[in-house]
Amino acid sequence: MKLPFPRRSARSRPTVRLSRLSWRDLLSEAAAGILQRPMRSVLTSLGTVLGVGTFVVILGLTATASSQIDDRFNALSATEVDVEDIARQTNPFADLGFPDDAEQRVGRLNGVRHAGVYWPVELSEGTEVRSAPVTEAPGSTSASVMAASSGVLQAANPTLAQGVVFNTWHDRTAQQVAVIGPGLAARLGITTLETRPAVFIGDKAFTVVGIVDSVERKPDLLMSVIVPRSTALKIWGVPKDSAKMLISTAPGAAPQVATEAAVALAPAHPEYFKAIPPPDPRALRTEVSGDLDQLFLLLAAICLFIGTIGIANTTLVAVLERTGEIGLRRALGARGRHVTGQFLAESSALGALGGLVGTSLGTLTVVAVAVAREWTPVIHPLTVTTAPVIGLVTGLLAGLYPAWRASRIQPVEALRR
């Protein structure tokens, strides 16, 4: 029995060879597309360079600044203890205050370097600070007056512009001397201490023995006329407001000193004093670093977004310019996925190149800033290794739509154009 249709042998069937694009060919085509218009490729990757570079600079400077914050915190705040007089808050009938030998009591504690009591002097209404005894003198101001023992100035670690700070002898003998800051000296017209100038607080004259340029602790002291504690007690009496004590310690001793200071000042009533130890440096670093990271990473994300838009826009323009080339490739057997792969490879290469250049420039910027500020540059290795990958991903995402658009071009329409 014969079949109605003759069977076609396997040898007579036409064979269709699928078009293939190897990785080597894909990379060579992408490199040719980039090098064909080098200036446009450089401008295209510039957005990614700026975005990735900003990313590296922000993380590097944040880590470097956090390291410097740690060093400064350990050197100053971690060695500072404040003690407040809360006797009246604890017991309305208590009138203890800091004892006369408060500095000596606290100074005997292990780890204490300097300690002193201070409080703002409450002057009568209309009392001014003048550089001359005449009321109408131009060198007058309504500056505040701060009573402080010599240990306060030593604990504040001042830098002197002229003269000296008063010492324990001035405290013990209740000398009428004063120390002022540069701003107050300028307002009073005091430019030199060679003439032994004096400031007048009301009708009381105080010889200026020193002008303090800056202090590492308690910078508000520079806004006041600082007089010895014993002198203030002799002239204005016991302070109405609660006094405070400033203690500077050796590194690591502040928490222990804070637990012992109240007992040393008043063994019978340690609850009359409140010692404030320094905060945890790790918590401070975490808080500061977290705030800086959130702010600066937002700026880096904006830069990367701008770079993505730039690559996408330029790649889309390249697709429109190369419509004839795409149509010829399609006519010769290239499939849509091949065209998609080619343009994705080009945009990814531009993004990766921008990421590498941005990482290098960002690292150099961090090092340059750290050297200029005399800091130790700190860059996490993960930042350096991740930044080029971010550039690659940015270029890949930017090329998705242009590559899809190129794959949709029909060969006949492209060749007709």
Report what the structure shows:
By secondary structure, the chain is α+β, with helices and mostly antiparallel strands. Helices cover 53% and strands 16% of the residues. A hairpin with a 2-residue loop joins strand 8 and strand 9. The mean pLDDT is 78.
The gist of it:
The chain is α+β, with helices and mostly antiparallel strands and 417 residues long. It has helices at residues 23-36, 38-75, 87-90, 102-107, 150-156, 168-173, 182-188, 229-236, 254-265, 281-321, 323-331, 336-372, 381-398, 400-407, 411-416, and strands spanning 80-85, 112-121, 129-130, 140-141, 144-148, 158-163, 177-180, 198-201, 204-215, 224-228, 244-249, 273-276.
Query: Which spans have pLDDT < 50 for at least 5 consecutive residues?
Result: none
Mean pLDDT: 78
Terminal residue distance:
57 Å
Main β-sheet, in a few words?
6 strands, mixed
Order of helices and strands: HHEHHEEEEHEHEHEEEHEHEHHHHHH
Key attributes of the depicted protein:
417 residues; alpha+beta; 6-stranded mixed sheet; 15 helices; elongated
Secondary-structure map with pairings?
Elements: H1 23-36, H2 38-75, E1 80-85, H3 87-90, H4 102-107, E2 112-121, E3 129-130, E4 140-141, E5 144-148, H5 150-156, E6 158-163, H6 168-173, E7 177-180, H7 182-188, E8 198-201, E9 204-215, E10 224-228, H8 229-236, E11 244-249, H9 254-265, E12 273-276, H10 281-321, H11 323-331, H12 336-372, H13 381-398, H14 400-407, H15 411-416
Parallel strand pairs: 5-10, 7-9
Antiparallel strand pairs: 1-11, 1-12, 2-5, 2-11, 3-4, 3-8, 6-9, 8-9
